[in-house]
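As a representative case, the lines below give one protein's residues and fold tokens.
***
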Amino acid sequence: MSEVKVIARNRKARHEYEILDSLEVGLVLEGSEIKSIREGRVSLSGSYASFDEKGQLWVYQMHVAEYPQARDNHEPYRERKLLAHGRQLRKLSRSVMEKGYTLIPLDVHLSGGRAKLQLGLCRGKKKYDKRQDIAERDSERKMRTEMKRVSRDYD
């Protein structure tokens, strides 16, 4: 079992979208990109994945900072091809086309020395869903602090 080291998370995705399913896919990178990713110089905010006309999966708007020591640097916002099994690609493609779901990168991590992307099959949340999530989080927080206070009173 290889060790997984999370490099970057898309925290906003869990707030903005309801995540229905997730899939780990590989990234096709240039030489200086993997070095920047290993240093943690990657951002997923505003990024998304989509299929092209050939049925290949690509990630867009993922920022990988330039590597300062590289001779030939890469374009920070270039489109990057994603690697997955054909059966997985067909299943994702059907979900995106028929049901109108969106593919959102959830995190970038290193697994066995290779950069991987956790891709989520998502549906956008409505405003009232977001408010409900915030209210639940606040009530959980209040309950935890009250439980701490009560337990301190007994000690």
The chain has a mean pLDDT of 86. The first helix runs from residue 11 to 16. Residues 125-155 form one domain. The first strand starts at residue 4 and ends at 9.
